[in-house]
Amino acid sequence: MRLFSFLGLFLGSAAFVQNAVASPVEGETGEPVVLAVAAFPEDNAFGHVVNGERNKIFLSIENKSARNVTLKNIAGSFHIPESNRLVKNTSALSYGIPLLEGASMQLPYTFHSEFKPGDYRLNIWLEHVVDGETYRVTAYDSIVAVVEPAGSWIDLKLWTTYLIVTGLLGALSFYVYTTLFPQQKKRKTSAVSAPVGTVTATGAGGYQEEWIPEHHLKKATKKSKASGVATSGDETSGVESGTEGRRRKGKK
């Protein structure tokens, strides 16, 4: 009996092996076996997703099937970890690259994030096409932390924004000040032009007659005549009369 038991076990094992060899490899007749694994670069070991920046992740892809496939696109989505509720889909990046049988490659995928800082479930997948059929393979499904960008004193973009805003506020303040508090205009005094021509000086003070109005000159002449002021002609006649008197005394 033991011989028959041993013989039956041997025959059963042989039949199992024969069926396993005869049956096709899983996925050869249906969905081809394509492996995809995504990982963040070495400078982002903790897998932080920074708001407002281009976040990059790399996908290692390998075609394990005996058929050639075409990589269609890579896309992803953010979900609430507790409820798995969809927050937002990331933009799909099209490739259209053929992946031959047994070939492997690494492709980058970049996406943006504008979410409230916190923990989210990030799902990234790869779509490929075989014989007109599209299949999806999950490459990454894990919890990530969405954080704000770290501030820096040498951030040129931040300083440029501050300068532009400061300039606009300064221009607006100056406009409001000049509108509400207008400045009084200063009166301009016209410069006195010097007289043109030859300047003559008369009298003991050496004043310039060109600066004296004509009617004042006429009044001054009349007053001098009325007071009996001797003119240059009278002074000359007096000198001559004095000389004649001296001559007469000499003759005597």
Automatic annotation (TrEMBL):
Where does the signal sequence lie?
1-22
- Residue ranges, annotated region (Disordered): 218-252
Q: Where is the composition biased (Polar residues)?
A: 229-240
Regions crossing the membrane: 159-178
Pfam families per the record? TRAP_alpha (PF03896)
What protein name applies here?
Increased recombination centers protein 22-2
Purpose: Is probably involved in a pathway contributing to genomic integrity.
- A GO CC term attached to the entry: endoplasmic reticulum membrane
What superkingdom heads the lineage?
A: Eukaryota
- Please give the family membership noted in the entry: Belongs to the IRC22 family.
Query: Can the keyword Magnesium be found in this entry's annotation?
Result: no
Primary residence: endoplasmic reticulum
Localization recorded for this chain is:
Endoplasmic reticulum membrane
Q: Which InterPro entries match?
A: TRAP_alpha
Which lineage ranks, top first, belong to the organism behind this chain?
Eukaryota, Fungi, Dikarya, Basidiomycota, Agaricomycotina
Q: Which UniProt keywords apply?
A: Endoplasmic reticulum, Membrane, Signal, Transmembrane, Transmembrane helix
Bilayer topology annotation:
Single-pass type I membrane protein
Under the heading PANTHER family, the entry gives: TRANSLOCON-ASSOCIATED PROTEIN SUBUNIT ALPHA, TRANSLOCON-ASSOCIATED PROTEIN, ALPHA SUBUNIT
